[in-house]
Write a structure and sequence with these properties.
The protein is an alpha/beta fold and 279 residues long. It folds into two domains: 143 residues, Rhodanese-like domain (Oxidized Rhodanese, domain 1, 3-Layer(aba) Sandwich), CATH 3.40.250.10; 118 residues, 3-Layer(aba) Sandwich (Oxidized Rhodanese, domain 1), CATH 3.40.250. It is built from ten helices and ten strands. Helix 4 crosses helix 9. It starts with a strand and ends in a 13-residue tail after the last helix.
Length: 279
């Protein structure tokens, strides 16, 4: 299975014994949407609801930090997902949350995981079948094999300020990157000094599908990213940073990582240096 699958492919595969379809939708608070209610109202047949918004480290003072490996395994096992299943993730979110789920599944050892290209919006636009109600769940065994090498901490990011070994690429919109828009309470606007801005929507075609390899490469290069050098992605809270990471994976780049705390952590710490403006 490819790591990006089409709606046509998924429609043909529904019902396969080793295929698990997962709704990874989660919405920002100001969207005024309820992902769980929307799932119950209509979802792809056979899908289960990940409840991504609650799959976080509840002990961390920083919002939306990654859950522990044990917590991740407990959640996906309860949804009937094993580490040998083929997992297809989709969402119906403006912030493309299936990429965050993809990052988690990969991080914690899933053997075969893909994103549905175009998500639920494309599925609906093609008038494909949806069903309502709760999903039928079963138990499964998920053996965690965590790869923490793909995660960067605040200490890692501070150290990189001097060494500049890794390019830091920020997925937020230009106004937030520049510090021209307010952040959540207690978080100073701006960006990590020396970082590069590549708003995540630039990686998508008008129909919501990912751009092809050439389009992805052009988006990064046009933003000023040197694809021959390592990259760490960041955003507001580690969600759209995963979109950049997935796109880099699509073009074969492996020397990549994600700053999980992202600007929520960095901007809230008075000790961290902060930059403003377009660059």
């Amino acid at each position: 299975m490819d790591d990006l699958v089409s709606t046509e492919w998924l429609a043909a595969e529904i019902g396969a014994d080793n295929l698990r379809i997962v709704d990874a939708s989660w919405h920002l608070a100001d969207a005024g949407r309820d992902a769980a209610a929307e799932f119950a109202a209509g979802h792809i047949p056979g899908a289960v609801f990940l409840d991504l918004g609650t799959l976080v480290d509840t002990a961390s003072p920083v919002a939306n930090m990654l859950p522990s490996a044990a917590a991740f395994a407990e959640r996906v096992q309860a949804l009937g997902i094993s580490d040998t299943d083929r997992v297809v993730l989709y969402d119906d979110s403006a912030v493309k949350t299936s990429a965050r789920a993809w990052f988690m599944f990969r991080l914690f050892g899933a053997g075969s995981v893909a994103i549905l290209d175009g998500g639920l919006a494309k599925w609906k636009s093609e008038r494909r079948e949806r069903v309502g109600g709760a999903a039928d769940l079963r138990k499964a065994q998920f053996t965690v094999r965590a790869d923490t090498g793909a995660i960067r901490s605040q200490a890692d990011m501070v150290a990189n300020l001097d060494r500049r070994v890794e390019q830091v690429v920020d997925a937020r919109g230009p106004a937030r990157f520049a510090g021209a828009e307010p952040e959540r309470a207690g978080v100073t606007p701006g960006h990590i000094p020396g970082s590069i801005n590549l708003p995540y929507p630039r990686l998508f075609a008008p129909d919501g599908t990912f751009k092809d390899r050439a389009g992805i490469v052009s988006a990064f290069r046009d933003a000023g990213v040197d694809l021959a050098r390592p990259v760490t992605t960041t955003c507001g809270s580690g969600v759209t940073a995963a979109v950049l990471l997935f796109a880099l994976h699509r073009v074969g780049k492996t020397d990549v990582a994600l700053y999980d705390g992202s600007w929520t952590e960095w901007g809230a710490d008075p000790a961290t240096p902060k930059a403003s403006g377009a660059a």
